[in-house]
Write a structure and sequence with these properties.
Elements: H1 19-29, E1 33-35, E2 42-44, H2 46-65, E3 69-70, E4 76-78, H3 79-82, H4 86-92, E5 97-102, E6 105-113, H5 118-128, E7 137-146, E8 160-170, H6 173-194, E9 200-203, E10 215-222, E11 228-238, H7 240-245, E12 248-250, E13 256-258, E14 260-267, H8 269-278, E15 295-299, H9 307-318, E16 324-326, H10 333-342, E17 347-351, H11 353-358, E18 360-365, E19 371-375, H12 376-404, E20 406-408, H13 412-421, E21 425-430, H14 434-444, E22 447-452, E23 471-476
Parallel strand pairs: 3-7, 15-16, 15-17, 20-21
Antiparallel strand pairs: 1-2, 4-6, 5-6, 7-8, 8-14, 9-10, 9-22, 10-11, 11-14, 12-13, 17-18, 18-19, 21-23, 22-23
Helix pairs in contact: 2-6
This protein binds zinc ion.
Amino acid sequence: MGKKNKQFVEKITAMEDDFAQWYTDVVKQAELVDYGQVKGTMIIKPYGYAIWENVKDELDRMIKETGHSNVAFPLFIPESLLQKEKDHVEGFAPEVAWVTHGGEEKLQERIAVRPTSEVLFCEYYAKNIHSYRDLPKLYNQWGNVVRWEKTTRPFLRSSEFHWQEGHTAHATDEDAAKETDRMLNVYADLVEEYLAIPVLRGRKTEKEKFAGANYTLTIEALMHDGKALQSGTSHHFGSGFAEAFNITYLDENGDSQYVHQTSWGLSTRIMGALIMVHGDNRGLVVPPRIAPTQAMIVPIAQHKEGVLDKAYDLRDKLSNLVRVDIDASDKMPGWKFNEYEMKGIPVRIEMGPKDIDKEQVVLVRRDTGEKEFVALTELETRLPALLDEIQQNLYKKALDHRNEKTSVAKNMDELKTVLDNQGGFIKAMWCGDIACEEKIKEDTTATSRCIPFEQEKVSDTCVCCGKDAKEMVYWARAY
Ligand SMILES: [Zn+2]
């Protein structure tokens, strides 16, 4: 020891100074993403992809456990097909990337690169659903979509992103409504239990719902800077698409009926939430349940005889219990500490000659920085328990933060004051008129995030116009 380590990882901007720059620095320094060659596209690097894969694997399991099958539909949509449902095409038209040529040859009809795949599934269902026996159809696909965005940021808003999109068809409106609820709850469970991010569950207003949907359900999370992020949506289509695409089935009496549909999606945007909810000025913080490496062993004074052997033995022993790795490179321990803090690995295990003599290791948790000495004989019970504690603590910290940053506003002055001073979610009553919703957005840049399922009556009158209120809405500035 005593030697100063000159290889410290590059510093990141403090989040209090410039949150947007902090975000960009973390994305880069934690080696999650690089920029693609076409503006707004991203290269998800191995570490970023490993985290996404853990999220994806859990969600995929939940999707299958609820009876869905994975399928793969094409990347391309003929223009005529995209135009079949009027609201839908109007909603997506400004963001569609078009293919106009195949090689040198100009195409007779333009082809859209899918911005979402509703119309492809509808066309397929129209041909493949005939009888009530064919229902429900419960399909999901993992893939990428393209939306030509003007301003882009890695994960949060990119021209191409990865996601899953579920598309289902049911015999009755009620069945479709149940499915819409069920998948919203799957998303909420995933985000709360695995990503340790508390979410609000509710319905989008008419203005904010998905183009072509009957209604849209959403989970909304609060980021560290007090802005909201829509984190997953589930749409009830009723028979709107079925009528446009003529998707019918013969019921048990032999009468022709329209099917009732849903779609639901969760994307790599959730990686943005992960960074902005848990990250700090030392970098990323990854909840243990989705961390590719849950514990990193850093041998101390590894040139001394026996240290590396013991460290490798420890790794082998722990690898049956947790996702553990070892850094036995010749970089200085100080560099390694910083590097794995930047990457947000939940626990660091230090082991040097003195520890070996005492038959112990040092555990350092990423979320609090606390150190503890643990006897080797205790480690196999203590380490998994510590990972659980970290998972719980991250959720609790995020929930406390959200509660601190949730306010009530009864009029426009209060709404503006809260938004300018602390941001966060604002509970306010609404008359249901879209004109008020638009005025709030115009005056404050805050949008309606959701009409929560758990309603409260925080006042009698609309926050904007003062007329009788119908519902409570969560408002926030959002990503
Ligand atoms: Zn109003």
